[in-house]
Backbone:
């Protein structure tokens, strides 16, 4: 992925074209994050590697072999090697995205990855993120810059997660994956079903009753059952997951406290702030200021390290 400096707010690009990093069953050629100003375009180029692009915020348009593909926040675009690819930010929006460029190496033949590799043989796949692909992306970039203890092993793990999670919701892999035999419903299965639903829909959930209605449970039974098995009420669990999501939005994205409160379906900014303080011990504003201070300090430290190399 190549881009001129003009039109970029920032660009953290890490290239390994001469000596790709061996990360398990993939070879890593490129990993980074970019924030593009209005209308900025990464011109059409041939893909020499498979590429996964995660839209962190904003909107824009990609093209693969001339086909236009609208991009929105939370979209995951996979483009295969050998195809023509371009990305452009919307005329009135800033487009921020993370990306990874890789190839499958010989060790991938030793693993059960045939279905996964088949997905990356298609020109492109576009899905909505339901598995929080942003998290391993940003963690991988952080490991690459910080290079703390066992950073290489962590980088390998995150890169493999990205490649797998990016395609897990694609129709291709769903059709190809062998059907599992139905299993008897156990306590752990029931609880996990609820936990998975909360994890995938935490922003839209407004109440325990909403979950009960959606998953066809009796409201009273669901509340008592979840608390008895897990030792925590479902309402408290939802609150914790919402605050966990709020922390991600505050730390990695460009949303105000008010926007996050609305996004997470709180009745008001005050109720969100109260819930946040109850879990974190500080207000959302204080948490955001602390994170920004840490990021600034980290950026200065990284710049100094680069200058000394």
Residues:
């Amino acid at each position: 992925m190549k881009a001129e400096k003009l039109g970029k707010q920032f660009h953290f690009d890490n290239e390994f074209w001469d000596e790709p990093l061996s990360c398990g069953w993939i070879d890593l050629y490129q990993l980074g994050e970019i924030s593009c100003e209005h209308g900025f375009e990464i011109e059409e180029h041939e893909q020499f590697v498979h590429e996964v692009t995660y839209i962190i915020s904003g909107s824009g348009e990609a093209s693969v072999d001339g086909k236009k593909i609208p991009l929105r926040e939370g979209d995951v675009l996979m483009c295969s090697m050998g195809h023509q690819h371009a990305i452009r930010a919307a005329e009135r929006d800033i487009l921020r995205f993370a990306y990874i460029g890789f190839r499958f190496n010989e060790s991938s033949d030793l693993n059960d990855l045939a279905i996964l590799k088949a997905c990356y043989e298609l020109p492109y796949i576009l899905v909505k993120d339901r598995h929080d692909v942003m998290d391993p992306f940003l963690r991988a970039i952080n490991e690459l810059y910080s290079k703390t203890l066992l950073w290489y092993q962590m980088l390998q793990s995150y890169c493999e997660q990205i490649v797998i999670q990016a395609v897990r919701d694609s129709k291709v892999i769903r059709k190809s994956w062998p059907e599992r035999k139905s299993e008897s419903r156990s306590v752990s299965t029931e609880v996990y079903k609820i936990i998975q639903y909360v994890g995938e829909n935490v922003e839209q959930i407004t109440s325990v009753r909403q979950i009960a209605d959606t998953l066809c449970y009796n409201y009273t039974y669901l509340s008592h059952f979840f608390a008895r098995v897990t030792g925590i009420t479902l309402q408290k669990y939802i609150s914790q997951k919402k605050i966990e999501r709020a922390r991600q939005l505050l730390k990695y994205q460009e949303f105000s406290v008010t926007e996050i409160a609305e996004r997470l379906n709180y009745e008001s900014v005050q109720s969100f702030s109260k819930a946040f303080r109850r879990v974190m011990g500080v207000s959302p504003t204080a948490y955001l200021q602390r994170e920004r201070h840490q990021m600034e300090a980290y950026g200065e430290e990284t710049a100094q390290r680069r200058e000394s190399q």
